[in-house]
Amino acid sequence: MEGSRKARVAKLAGLAGLVAVAASGCSTDEVLRFGWPVGITPQADAMRDLWTWSVVAALAVGLVVAILILWPVVFHRKRSEELPKQLQYNHPLEIVYTVIPVVIVAVLFYFTATTENYVTDKSHTPDVTVDVIGFQWNWEFKYENTKGADGNPVSTVGSSSEIPILVLPTSKWIEYKLLSTDVIHSFWVPAFNFKRDVFPDPDKNNQDSSFQNTIDQTGAFVGHCAELCGAYHSAMNFEVRALPDDLFQQYIQLREKVNPKTGKGYTTSEALSQLNCGDLCAPLATTTHPFNTDRTSRTGS
């Protein structure tokens, strides 16, 4: 009788779990990510793995704690006036209760530190180095070791008709050097699962002003300023365009040439249009809106 009751409870619990998953509309991958967003870099994948296994560990500890609480409630209810066996001075048991949490914390600390070191590692020789310059309320992306038609490094700045687009190669090491020319901004690409503040003086803040990553997926990805920086902070958007390396090299070569139609160097949109790679190289972003970047059209904030 007791066994059949337990079996029914187990079946009901399993059914409830399946209904909860099905009713949520989540795929298996979404369930296993426990809400963690999909990233496009190996660093983002490492953080997702840390999050997933941390949640699994938390659920396991929660289950054990729930069992330890419910076990005496169900199986050790008062049956007589006789006191049950007292364990408050059971030293081996107390040692176990102390050691287990210490081990759990140590293991979580180890994997957290290992993941952080991997995400912030800058030991690789970058294939592409980009100076990311933030200012109210726009971005400039300057490619080091390049030479545009005007003799200066290839650079992209947002305008009133086109948001700034940061074109990057996939499967290559990229280093981002961050700098602000006025107030504190924050360089945030949600698809990277990573953001970092952009300071006016990198030498006078407590965080590194550069980082490295690789991108393993082509596409267009929206970026934002994630630090409240003034009246038009919400409009300080940009886009990352991740291209295969061969297309990226063609893009840089075009940016270093003179456009025969204009007599000036190719702009970002003109260079992307020349690549003829469909939606991947659409010349204008469609996921954010252009904004007025004429700094003489406003008063200081």
Commentary on this structure:
Helix 3 packs antiparallel against helix 4 and helix 5 packs across helix 6. The protein is elongated, with a radius of gyration of 27 Å. It folds into 2 domains: 33-75 and 93-119, no CATH class; 128-294, Cupredoxins -  blue copper proteins (Immunoglobulin-like), CATH 2.60.40. It contains 6 helices and 12 strands. The longest helix has 34 residues, at 42-75. Mean pLDDT is 81; it is low at 295-301. With 301 residues, it is of the alpha+beta class. Its cofactor is Cu cation. Residues 125-254 form the Cytochrome oxidase subunit II copper A binding domain. Keywords: Copper, Electron transport, Membrane, Metal-binding, Respiratory chain, Translocase, Transmembrane, Transmembrane helix, Transport. Subunits I and II form the functional core of the enzyme complex. Electrons originating in cytochrome c are transferred via heme a and Cu(A) to the binuclear center formed by heme a3 and Cu(B).
